[in-house]
Amino acid sequence: MVAVTSTPAPAPVAVDADIAEPRRNLGLVPTASMITGAAIALVWFWIPLSILIIGISSIPSVIGFVLAVVVFIYLMRGVEWVERMRSEAVFGLGIPVPPRRLSQYSGFQRWAHQLWLDISGARFWKSAAQHYLRMIYDVLAVGIAFALLVFAFLGPAAAIAVRRSDDDAGLAFVSPPLAWVLAILAVLGALAILVFAPALDAAIDRWLLSPSSTAALQYQVSALSDAREGAVSSAQTERHRIERDLHDSVQPRLVSLAMTIGLAQTKLDTDLPAARTLIAEAHEDAKSALVELRNVVRGIAPTILSDRGLDAALSAVVQRSAVPTTLNIHLPRRLPDEVESVAYFVVAEALTNVAKHAQATQAVVTVRLDESANLLNVSVFDDGRGGAVIEAGETATGLRGLEERVRAARGSFGVSSPPTGPTIVTAVLPCAS
């Protein structure tokens, strides 16, 4: 049983033409942010710095050094997230997040390698420099403004008190009228600092939180290299699968079919009933061979995909599914051939795995195009047993092959499958043609 539903296109999302320019760098909110940042910095300034100093001083004790470094890395990663949220909330900068190199390993090795990639990357130290530079600047700006305000409130009173005192020690170098003038200037200077100084905060955020052109270029080169490796690996995986399936299933079936037909030929003149029985067996073998052949070529895009698009192709896939499947699809337009092909294989292979391994009672396929981000989101849910993993190995198939296909299309692939289920296979594919 298949249910097909469609949803209206989402409303377009407004995007600033120039995300590098702040929507607001003056006003009450930026000023309050600067004052709050200065107050927090008086205490917070020393905490990450102390952890780093403790780690460096604990180098002879390897465990203490490692613990301090790990805490420092996680702390500064959290600080970067907070700084980006603050910058967007206060200034509305919309600074793009620099690319983050991800480890290709798994388990503990992945965790340790990811820590090394983070601390050795420019993004980590630029965000740390932004955090400390902004704190120092906020403390200095607010401190100067506070000192000017203190002088404005106490200066005239002190000048009057000195003028009226009997102490003639030369302290009356500022007359009360001059003190009032200086007090007014001090108030104006303090207000100017509090009002206009946040503009430099925005400049610091834009300078150190934005991705550099070199980093973006390096990330694109790395992504293209990964995509090429994924394409090569995916092609090799498919070739191994087809070779193995042809050798293990289709070839023996065809050999048996040929032998049965040969025996039937020898019986036609001498034993017609036996010949008819052999021909019937050959007919069954031929039908079984067709089924086996369909399973082998499931990794080859069907004609319906190129003729009628992904919607029709996926509808045909879920109709043939051995598990009752619901298809929710939103595709307002045709997509590039590569994207449609990868999305088709993700759904087809995932539903094949559900039928073979999940022991599920139902499955849900969701395919939606995010037009604002130009991304195709594909997910396959089943309510069966979990425990699905992406296996490693040169001849591994299934989820590993899907991951490599998606990576070759410069997309991202993920599997959520706790031991008790359910299992959700997701893929996000860029749709730029």
Write the layout of secondary structure elements.
Elements: E1 2-5, H1 28-44, H2 46-57, H3 62-91, H4 107-119, H5 122-164, H6 176-196, H7 198-209, H8 213-267, H9 272-296, H10 303-308, H11 310-320, E2 325-330, H12 337-358, E3 363-370, E4 375-382, H13 399-408, E5 412-416, E6 423-430
Parallel strand pairs: 1-2, 2-3
Antiparallel strand pairs: 3-4, 4-6, 5-6
Helix pairs in contact: 1-5, 2-3, 3-5, 5-6, 5-7, 8-9, 8-13, 11-12, 12-13
Report on the structure:
This protein has 433 residues and is of the alpha/beta class. The chain has helices spanning 28-44, 46-57, 62-91, 107-119, 122-164, 176-196, 198-209, 213-267, 272-296, 303-308, 310-320, 337-358, 399-408, and strands at residues 2-5, 325-330, 363-370, 375-382, 412-416, 423-430. A six-stranded mixed sheet has the order 1-2-3-4-6-5, with helices on one face. Strand 2, helix 12 (337-358) and strand 3 (363-370) form a beta-alpha-beta unit. The chain is elongated and about 140 Å long. Residues 1-20 have low confidence and may be disordered.
Gist of the model:
This protein has helices at residues 28-44, 46-57, 62-91, 107-119, 122-164, 176-196, 198-209, 213-267, 272-296, 303-308, 310-320, 337-358, 399-408, and strands at residues 2-5, 325-330, 363-370, 375-382, 412-416, 423-430. It has 433 residues and is α/β, with parallel strands linked by helices. The chain has a six-stranded mixed sheet, covered by helices on one side.
